[in-house]
């Protein structure tokens, strides 16, 4: 291999993401169909991107050129087919998909001697969905390692392929799930922990929700115990910018938001309107979050683009914004749509009876408190 050829290859790999971002108008809408595989909706039609059959929601990189996703490992698939149902989280791998070349690599897999069969000692790793660092250079996820029963937070560096353990003392989770969902933002890596309530605490619920924030080096910055109001529960959590400050936004089932200071763990109400926007086109169309009472289903989330109310009242995971900042994609009743300036277009191929869209991801987005 000549030196000139090697330099050209490195240049291509490093700058392919930049070229992709510059051609954001051709970025596909990523659709998780039937909870099985990720498809891309391009200007010229649909294309299947993943083939594991057990993919989770794609997580788009900050420059829009790649997505990472969690998928069942082979031993997890065999166990699922054997048991016919879930008795616990199953062993999972992490894959990284490069959109310009339509190629992917495994970034986290199972031990060479992994087992997850009935009647055998368990030796496997269960993993959460990954999260990108704000600069796109790293991925992080949580994992539960058996038989050691170690719950840890790990980070993967994309350029070098190195995986590093940030901490191994994540708390034991109550119930079915043992991995902790996470979001990586400017203030650190936020994790949602669901733990058994302390004995004799007198709490009305058997579990408590906490938000833990770690530094990229693995230091615990803050731990906050949530206090939901009667009749509500934690729905989601996202990093949100409020002026110059970055906070962890906690969203309850009632649509109420609270903000957590990542350094101190202090809780404050959100004053203003949460707004989802494209980080590649921050001055483009944005979507403001609201709440309404539906006569049949009770509380529903509402979404407004400027003065226009979107024809959509679904969850966060079924809505995304184009990297060009001019269109919105969403799924309603398992069918994909694209909205632009009050006009709605069907995503052809998703209205088939056998195709149900469960997640929609287009360009990288973030939350901010909208200006008055």
Characteristics of this structure?
single chain; 372 residues; mainly beta; nine-stranded mixed sheet; five-stranded antiparallel sheet; 30 strands; globular
Largest sheet: 9 strands, mixed
Q: Work out the strand percent.
A: 35-45%
Order of strands, main sheet, comes to: 20-19-18-17-30-21-22-23-24
- Helix fraction bin: under 10%
> Globular, elongated, flat, extended or rod-shaped: what is the shape?
globular
Question: How would you classify the helix and strand content by structural class?
Answer: mainly beta
C-alpha end-to-end distance: 59 Å
Number of helices: 2
Enumerate the spans where pLDDT stays under 50 for 5 or more consecutive residues.
1-22
Gyration radius, to the nearest Å? 21 Å
Number of strands: 30
Mean pLDDT: 90
Structure description:
By secondary structure, this protein is mainly beta. The chain has helices spanning 3-22, 74-83, and strands spanning 29-33, 37-42, 45-48, 59-60, 66-72, 92-98, 103-108, 124-127, 131-132, 138-146, 150-157, 163-167, 182-185, 188-196, 207-214, 220-225, 234-242, 245-252, 257-260, 267-269, 274-278, 287-294, 298-305, 308-309, 319-321, 328-332, 335-340, 343-346, 357-361, 365-369. It is built from two helices and 30 strands. Strand 1 and strand 2 form a beta hairpin. It has a nine-stranded mixed beta sheet with strand order 20-19-18-17-30-21-22-23-24, with no helix packed on it. Strands 8, 9, 10, 11 and 12 form a five-stranded antiparallel beta sheet that branches. A four-stranded antiparallel beta sheet has the order 3-2-1-29, with no helix packed on it. Mean pLDDT is 90; it is low at 1-22. It has a domain at 56-170.
């Amino acid at each position: 291999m000549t030196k000139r050829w090697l330099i050209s290859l490195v240049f291509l790999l490093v700058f392919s993401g930049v070229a992709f971002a510059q051609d954001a108008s051709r970025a596909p809408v990523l659709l998780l169909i039937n909870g099985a595989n990720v498809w891309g909706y391009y200007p010229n039609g649909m294309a299947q991107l993943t083939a594991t059959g057990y993919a989770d929601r794609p997580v788009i990189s900050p420059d829009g050129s790649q997505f990472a996703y969690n998928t069942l490992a082979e031993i997890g698939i065999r166990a699922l087919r054997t048991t016919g149902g879930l008795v616990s989280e199953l062993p999972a791998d992490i894959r990284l998909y490069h959109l310009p070349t339509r190629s992917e690599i495994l970034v986290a897999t199972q031990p060479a001697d992994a087992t997850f069969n009935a009647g055998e000692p368990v030796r496997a790793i269960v993993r959460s969905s990954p999260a990108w660092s704000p600069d796109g250079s790293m991925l992080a996820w949580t994992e539960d390692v058996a038989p050691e029963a170690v719950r840890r937070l790990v980070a993967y560096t994309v350029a070098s392929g190195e995986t590093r353990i940030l901490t191994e003392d994540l708390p034991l989770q109550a119930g079915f799930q043992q991995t902790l969902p996470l979001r990586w933002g400017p203030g650190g890596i936020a994790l949602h922990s669901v733990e058994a309530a302390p004995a004799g605490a007198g709490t009305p619920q058997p579990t408590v929700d906490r938000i833990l924030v770690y530094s990229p080096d693995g230091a615990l910055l803050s731990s906050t115990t949530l206090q939901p109001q009667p009749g509500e529960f934690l729905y989601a959590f996202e990093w949100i910018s409020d002026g110059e400050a970055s906070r962890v936004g906690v969203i309850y089932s009632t649509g109420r938001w609270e903000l957590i200071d990542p350094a101190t763990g202090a809780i404050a109400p959100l004053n203003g309107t949460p707004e989802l926007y494209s980080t590649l086109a921050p001055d483009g169309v944005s979507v403001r979050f609201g709440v309404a009472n539906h006569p049949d289903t009770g509380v529903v989330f509402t979404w407004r683009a400027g003065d226009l109310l979107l024809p959509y009242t679904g969850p966060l995971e079924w809505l995304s914004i184009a990297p060009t900042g001019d269109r919105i994609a969403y799924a309603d009743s398992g069918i994909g749509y694209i909205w632009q300036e009050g006009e709605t277009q069907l995503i052809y191929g998703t209205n088939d009876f056998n195709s149900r869209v469960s997640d929609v991801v287009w360009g990288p987005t973030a939350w901010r408190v909208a200006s008055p």
